[in-house]
Amino acid sequence: MPLTRADLQASRLQAMIREAGLDLPLWSDRELQTSIDQTLQPHPPDGDLWLFAYGSLIWNPAFHYCERQVGKIYGWHRRFCLWAPLGRGTPEHPGLVLGLDRGGSCQGVVYRIAAADIAAELLLLWRREMIVGSYIPRWVTVFAGSQRFPALTFVTNPGHDCYAGKLPLPTTVHHIATAQGQIGPCAEYLFQTVAGLTAAGIRDRTLHHLAEQVSQRQQVAGSLGAQLSREEAARFSGGDAARTCA
After folding, report:
1. Which contacts (CB < 8 Å, 24+ apart) does range 22-27 have?
2. pLDDT per position as a tens digit, 99-138
3. Is pTM beyond 0.85 here?
4. Can you give the residue range of the structural domain that contains 223?
5. Is-catalytic flag, 121?
């Protein structure tokens, strides 16, 4: 099931990582707050904050905001380029989640967080996005209609162990179609993101194509699984018959 606001308030992700014993650097709330303070240095202390979302934050923000609209950034593109060894996969069979990688452009959703809510809402966001350091908070320029304004977002950390880079399409399809973790199937993450983008009026052709490939892979796997089950049932039934006749 997707993360909830209550999960983030209770630091559920941190607890999951501790219990799993993963060899990942786990940030404390103190370290998260230090990162938040450093990130907010160029931001006016009494001003609202815009956040650019490109993945699960579109369909499951779990933070309070007062406005949302579609916006576009340049110099970064959306890609499944981060391994997920826990929430959407396992250490033995990791899933993949989205990050912003260098180059191109990306259309997403921007949220306006009221100045009075910034401290509380950013801590929840950092507990979600920054607990192992696989993302880097970054200020970007968002273009929305005739407007342009600075917004905060999370880009990939290419120096992190979870950074997968540009994977071959068959590898990406395989992991998304088959991985599952404590939060849910990796494919669900992809399908929900495509649905969220569509609902916002955004069509990402690369993600749509990927979703089609993953869906086909799952259908083939399901058909093979059903065939193997029938064959196994036939062998089992035949064996019983042979023993009965003996």
Report:
1. 22/85, 22/86, 22/91, 24/85, 24/132, 24/161, 24/162, 25/132, 25/133, 26/131, 26/132, 27/126, 27/130, 27/131, 27/132, 27/133
2. 999 999 999 999 999 999 999 999 999 999 999 999 999 9
3. yes
4. 5-245
5. no
- What count of other Cβ atoms lies within 10 Å of the Cβ of residue 191? 17
Question: Among 67, 129, 231, 232, which one carries the catalytic annotation?
Answer: 129
pLDDT one-digit tens code per residue, 23-50 = 888 999 999 999 999 999 999 989 999 9
How many angstroms separate the CA atoms of 169 and 64, rounded? 36
How far apart are alpha carbons 195 and 202 in whole angstroms?
A: 9
Q: How many residues does the chain have?
A: 246
Residue 90 CA from chain centroid, whole number = 15
- How many domains does the chain divide into? 1
